[in-house]
Structure formats: structure tokens, C-alpha cells
Here is the input.
Amino acid sequence: KPVADRVAPRFNTAFSESFWPELMGQRTASGEAVNHKNAFEVSTALRCGFVIAEDVSTVPCKVMKKDVATGRRTEAVDHPLNDVLTIEANGWMDPLQMLETTALHAVFTGAGRAFINRVRGRIVEIIPLEPGRVTAEQLPDYSIKYTATAAGGETRDIPQSAIWEVR
Here is the structure.
């Protein structure tokens, strides 16, 4: 055999191009389809995902301000976004739950996305979006257009500025 055929590949096969179509719901060699929804049914996969998501969600997420004169950074407790990131992310989740949910989506689908709800230009809540209901498309100007599908089938385009994405 030629030397090239005997040398082990230099990359992890989990990151090869053939791996991703199988992961995202196409048939595998066993004939079973694997996607983020049925991966949740495997307790080992689910627990591993939760371990990662729990760790990500416990990292402090603070708004900081920099003093121009001294260059020192301090927590901006008076900033409007501070309450969203430290007290209540939305009407039914605290920030830890919102971060954990978004991280779990990122673990299993590659991208956790949340809607940034603004009222009069001020962020008032961050709402995680179900992965299967949001698609992203890169436009010719390199911006991203997100399209969300409601439970009833209605679709709505969401501008890039209204989505927080964790990969």
C-alpha cells in the first residue's frame, strides 16, 4: 500500500464532514436517524449535555463599566441589562435557567439561540428559542437572517440584532 493509505488521519473523525449529516438527522450506518430530539432519549447523552450546560450557566455573566479616568472595571449594577442577566431573564426563567437552556441547545444542535426582546430600545427579556423552530441564513452582505416558526406554522423573520446566539 502507498504510505498515504497507511497513515492515520490527522483529524478527529467526529469533526469530519460525514459526521455532521448523520448527527443532524440523516440515517447512520445502523439505519437509525440521530437528531437533537432523540439524543435526549439517551440518558448518557442527556446527562453529558446537562453537565456542560450546568457548568456554562454558573459562570457569572455581568455587565461591566470602565472608569475612563482610572481604567478600572466595575460591575454596572445600574445598567438596565443587569437585572435581565442577574435577576430575571424573562417572565418564567431566571438567568441561570435561560443560560442553561441555551447552552443545552448549543451542545446538542451546535447553536443555542435566544430572542432579545426590546421595549423602546431597552432589553427587557431574553427568551430561548426551540432549536428546530429557528433557521439561520447568511445574506449576500454577510449578515444573518433568522426565521422562526411558531407552533401553528406561522413564520417570521427576525433581524440579527434581535438574536443572541451561543455556539
